[in-house]
Design a protein that fits this description.
Chains A, B: It is an enzyme of class 4 (lyase). Chains A, B: It comes from Virgisporangium aliadipatigenens. Chains A, B: Belongs to the serine/threonine dehydratase family. Chains A, B: Its EC number is 4.3.1.19. Two copies of one chain form a homodimer. By secondary structure, chain A is α/β, with parallel strands linked by helices. The first copy, chain A, has two domains: about 210 residues, Rossmann fold (3-Layer(aba) Sandwich), CATH 3.40.50.1100; about 90 residues, Rossmann fold. In chain A, the strands form two sheets. The first copy, chain A, has a six-stranded mixed β-sheet with strand order 1-2-10-7-8-9. In chain A, strands 5-4-3-6 form a four-stranded parallel β-sheet, sandwiched between helices. Chain A starts with 5 loop residues before the first helix and ends with a helix. At the A-B interface, strand 1, helix 12 and helix 14 of A face strand 1, helix 12 and helix 14 of B.
């Protein structure tokens, strides 16, 4: 299987410049002298997903792109697709489950997307039908080289800001973010370790990588974690990237995730959703399992339920 | 009176590089297509004050600096001084009022400073005595050219990220931030308008600038505003900068400040303290009084009481 290259990621960086925010690395002095946070919740849609989605749309031939795009998502990827389409001035359809959080549906509509609500089992059929009828281009949430290359731009920025980084901690859900970041880091700084982090309740990636085969966990299991962005299983493509380029996996508990959310908001004023807190949780609670040294934690997004955020706050 | 120059601000930028965070400009698409936020709450101490304090310490001759520094503050400047001293490995004493919020006292101590709590009226005497006894260097919160030059680096960064900026909105308390930002913007892009913003309940700067003389408002009046960082009056030095370089002032109400806090946290996931919200409040509620065009709002800090933040959230 062909893996994403550093050249692909550099092209993606050119594409997203001026659209995705060039996020800084924030020294988290309250946690230690060697931890930096990469706060992707500062992206205009609140998560790193904009990088991959926008790179995918930017990589389409102009003629095809003009027809518009289609995506399915119950969360951050919906807004990423909508924002990307809006930036190019092309139509966007987002198929969302009819059980999606109303706030997320509204946010997607506010970005100009046509939202189609369907019962979850009908999702793929509806999407295929509309894509076919209107000639729309699919923008997948993680299982595509252009998406992986887009997320990899985070790795380029980490090395640019912290050239002597020793450890990079990155959340693993479908694996697009971790695949991209690991591809960039291992190409630019092979000595640095890239460690994936996932909730113990959705540890399908740790399971797959330790067994050497792609293992899918059933949704009854993965849906127990509060980290809703990390309930997804790997794909063949992301499994191939992570098998080749990741140095290890660490799992964190639900309490550790909540604790990391509280400490990041208090210490660094960084709003974070549960999925975005796992990398920092690994640093705070599993230091002994990690390589030592200058560590960057990818804080992947900040779109949490306001009630939950208010709770972790006080 | 000699005013701070662009060269002074560029020197400050060299000083603070690698210590203060190079904050991005965040497109606030939820508020309009032409608003960007400069989120200074991302500084390691939660406000822009680090820029000026660190530049002041960096500008001391090494021999003098080694003796250490002293500052007085009840809030953000305390942490700015402590963080700066720690970065240089020199002693730091912070004189704080014995009525200061315990959390702020703790945060200052956590950064290694010696905190001395005094009854407010004794502040100046205690500070003079300790400075004298120990040979410490004073780091003032705003009334010093090195502080103004440090805050001015925000202006350099705005023009670097948004070269065709038309309007810059900046909070005005003691006036150090606005003096520095206006000095940078008017030197680099004279066509851009720099507008100061303050609470109507502490509109001493608007009063001073419209009357052409430095007018001090009594604390019984200015302490009515929730924006605790903006209760301070201008000094002769900042009044001189603002008279020469500011294009106008706008005042905002307490309700407008709270509304801007809510909308920034929801729309951009930017935690903001009341003082940090006034510039965005001016854009959201006083658009007709402002020059039109591409607008950057300086969000000066994010150190709000957690209870208040939780309230504006939900």
């Amino acid at each position: 299987m062909e893996l994403v290259t550093l050249a692909d990621i550099r092209t993606a960086a050119d594409h997203i410049a001026g659209v995705a925010v060039r996020t800084p690395l924030l020294p988290a002095w309250w946690a230690g002298t060697d931890l930096w946070l990469k706060p992707e919740g500062l992206q205009p849609i609140g998560s790193f997903k904009l990088r991959g989605a926008y790179n995918t749309v930017a990589s389409l031939p102009e003629e095809k792109r003009r027809a518009g795009i289609i995506a399915h998502s119950s969360g951050n990827h919906a807004q990423a697709a909508a924002y990307s389409a809006r930036a190019f001035g092309v139509p966007c359809v987002v198929v969302m489950p009819n059980v999606a959080v109303p706030m997320k549906v509204e946010a997607t509509r506010a970005l100009g997307a046509e939202v189609i609500l369907v019962p979850p089992p009908e999702r793929d059929d509806v999407m295929a039908k509309i894509a076919q009828e209107r000639g729309l281009n699919r923008v997948p949430p993680f299982d595509h080289p252009d998406v992986i290359a887009g997320q990899g731009t985070i790795g380029l920025e980490i090395v640019a800001d912290l050239p002597d980084v020793d450890v990079v901690l990155v959340p693993v859900g479908g694996g697009g973010l971790a695949s991209g970041v690991a591809s960039a880091i291992k190409a630019l700084r092979p000595a640095a370790a890239v460690i994936g982090v996932e909730p113990a309740l959705a540890a399908d990636a740790a399971d797959s990588l330790s067994s050497g085969e792609l293992r899918k966990w059933p949704t009854e299991q993965t849906y127990r974690t509060i980290a809703d962005g990390l309930r997804t299983n790997l794909s063949e493509l992301t499994f191939a990237h992570l098998s080749e380029r990741l140095d290890g996996m660490v799992t964190v508990s639900e309490d550790e995730i909540l604790d990391a959310m509280t400490r990041m908001v208090r210490g660094s004023r960084v709003l974070v959703e549960p999925s975005g807190a796992v990398a920092t949780a690994a640093y705070l609670h599993h230091r002994a399992e990690l390589p030592q040294g200058r560590t960057a934690a990818v804080v992947s997004g900040g779109n949490a339920d306001p009630k939950l955020l208010a709770d972790v706050f006080v």
